[in-house]
Amino acid sequence: MTRRVAVIGGGTSGLACIKSCLDEGLEPVCYESSDDIGGLWKFKENPEPDRASIYHSVIINTSKEMMCFSDFPIPAHFPNYMHNSLIMDYFRMFADHFQLTKHIRFNTKVLQVRQRSDFSDSGQWDVETENKDGKMEKHIFDAVMICIGHHCHPNLPLHDFPGIDTFKGTYFHSRDYKTPEEWRNKKAVVIGIGNSGGDIAVELSRATKQVYLSTRRGAWITNRVADNGLPRDMLYSRKTLLLRQILPFGLTCSMAERKLDNRFDHSLYNLKPKHRYGSNSIA
């Protein structure tokens, strides 16, 4: 008897799990709450509750050589670092090639997952779902794979910003940012120097009257493209990891920091952090 597997989420992980289940002779059923595959990478103008949301210009910071599915290379004519629309094109190619969408139940939410009363013997799970028409169903599965990601709920700690209640401007999480146009000729503050913060600050700098990037500490800024135009993440190999293990930590950090400072002096821009490059870095 074929073992049934519930896959929750039809994004990149969900698609890979469906494919892996089929390779192992299992029967996957994927539940996707939206009307399409892609998860995080499906751009929508209006953010939806309990779903990840990206801005229009997002380009992935992992090269196509390193992010592709091992059994389905990304087309050669695609750029090394792809816009979110091309990532979606690739996902559709992957899903079509391996006929994965027929295993996906779109517009279906998973309400509850729990062990069956005889779980200690059967190892089975009860999965309760609801489709867009409000029809609820219960299913029995031999295994469950959770593929919903971790960018669904924005972190907006307003209690850390005294005076926010009387602030007359507009404030929002980067999840709600889409394009810079509505902020043209205005002043903006971007709080946080992570990937999204850096991206949005650069983009706003081309439209706003003034943009400020606020961060609690400095950061080592690395670019996507390394020496000779190669994607940076392609330079990491077993040899690189071995050298990191052999050489003193301080030495490898100093070498990396010197190279980054050759691109621009972090101290000059008040960005040099107290932590070493090998401790924490921002791509």
From TrEMBL:
Q: Is-annotated flag, keyword ATP-binding?
A: no
EC number of this enzyme: 1.-.-.-
Its subcellular locations are:
Endoplasmic reticulum membrane
Q: Which UniProt keywords apply?
A: Endoplasmic reticulum, FAD, Flavoprotein, Membrane, Monooxygenase, NADP, Oxidoreductase, Transmembrane, Transmembrane helix
The answer to whether the entry has keyword tRNA-binding is no
Q: Which GO terms describe its cellular component?
A: endoplasmic reticulum membrane
Cofactor entry: FAD
- Catalytic activity, per the record? trimethylamine + NADPH + O2 = trimethylamine N-oxide + NADP(+) + H2O; hypotaurine + NADPH + O2 + H(+) = taurine + NADP(+) + H2O; hypotaurine + NADH + O2 + H(+) = taurine + NAD(+) + H2O; N,N-dimethylaniline + NADPH + O2 + H(+) = N,N-dimethylaniline N-oxide + NADP(+) + H2O
Q: Which one Pfam family would you cite for this protein?
A: FMO-like
Membrane-topology descriptor: Single-pass membrane protein
An MF annotation (GO) of this entry: trimethylamine monooxygenase activity
Family indicated by similarity: Belongs to the FMO family.
What function is annotated for this protein? Answer: Broad spectrum monooxygenase that catalyzes the oxygenation of a wide variety of nitrogen- and sulfur-containing compounds including xenobiotics. Catalyzes the S-oxygenation of hypotaurine to produce taurine, an organic osmolyte involved in cell volume regulation as well as a variety of cytoprotective and developmental processes.
What name goes with this protein?
Answer: Flavin-containing monooxygenase
The organism of origin for this protein: Pagothenia borchgrevinki
